[in-house]
Design a protein that fits this description.
The protein is an all-alpha fold and 113 residues long. It has a single domain, classed as 434 Repressor (Amino-terminal Domain). It is built from 7 helices and no strands. Helix 5 runs antiparallel to helix 6.
Amino acid sequence: MESALLTNGFDSISEYKKPLLLGAKIRRLRVERKMVQRELAEKLNIDTPMFSKIELGVRRAKRSQVVQLAKLLHVSEKELLTLWLADGVLNAVKDDRELGLAALKVAKKTIMP
């Protein structure tokens, strides 16, 4: 988990401020495909400022929107949902690095006994 943060320019979980993993990926894919925010926002039935907030990590997308975005951007649904979920986890643990890492270890043991 922490390695994903390092590749996004953060030195540690304690420097992580906002969920950026999904937003950065969406932006990169949108730009590569020469699409504008307005176009994707319209297909998601949201306004352009809301879409911009999702890309910037200010606003969290709904799961159903992430699924739609995967289809619109021709990318794996699993990939985008993984980033979406990782953003949620990072947001939950951002204020306490030590406790957050301990909680992630417990969760991993529960998921993968």
